[in-house]
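Chapter summary example: a protein plus zinc ion.
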Amino acid sequence: MDSDATDASKPGSAIYFDGKSNQRRAVTLHLAEQLEIRDGDTVLAAWSYVDIRRADGPSGMLRLSSLAAPALARLEIRDAAVAADLVARCASLDENTPGRRGVAAIVGWSLAAAVSIVAVVLFGVPLAADRLTPLVPDAFERRVGEVADSQIKVLFDGKVCDNAAGQQAFSKLVTALREAAGMDTSVQSGVLSSPIPNAFALPGGRVYLLNGLLAKAENADEIAGVLAHELGHLQHRDSMRGLIRNGGTSFLIGLLFGDITGSSALIFASRTLVTSSHSREAELDADSFSINVMHRLGRPTKPAGELMLRITGKEGKGLSIMSSHPPSEDRLARMTREDRPATKPPLLTPEEWRSLKSICAADGKI
Ligand SMILES: [Zn+2]
């Protein structure tokens, strides 16, 4: 081949994503006993040929993954000679054997994405989002959720508040709501230290309450109703649906053809999650969910409506839950209509409520 006589293997340049960071690295490949991925003299990874699989990629590029590497690790090769050599060495290149339930989900997802792109053209994005959302594999949604989670903590400069007494009260409240909603223990939740009065749900099963909302709340029923509303968004996978809708065609095409390790799509996604609001239907459904949960708990529904109005009335526009549609007056009217006298004891004792209010205080005192 070329003049690199000191090396028995064939060097070739490629682009490597390690699957753990967003970094795109220029590397050289050495086809030795294993495929060595090198940055200068450093071997970043060595992939056994038998583990290497072809990943979807644009024409003119060979994109590879390895069963033994992190799921999102990718190698992109444009050098035709190296690509041909690799194809010859990788006996299982086109064998779809990721094991467990991977392939079916990925194939199904790709088909769904392809169908949805057609649907986008024919019907516009919202329909596609509704059709597509149930088909997004849980693992993918969890991955989006993890990235969004770290982004959001940066965005809100958020430290998670967890002084012991406050956390205990918060867990008690969330557990009661979760059980009444019939949701399993995979739901994660927390309070973020931020003065913004808001709460939101992320893909993959996370609900966050911002301390600013706690500060404005007057009793546990108010917070419970809002948290139940966010659980409704989780249950309905509204965040994922919103992402697909707001991301539009380019996000869909990126999901289908692109490389999610180059996670500009995911960073875009987290920004979208924070800045966009749900559809009016999604909000109404989440309100219904909240109303049902509060009924099951034997607690009034009106307080959550009062809290929402208190926030939007005084602060103008807020983020997701406090978004302007439907108007907070309408919500309060509905939650007042649905209100029933309490038939069960408060979800938190007065002491627990005080602890929750001061969950972000270092020593548990306000
Ligand atoms: Zn909402």
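Key point: The chain has a mean pLDDT of 78.
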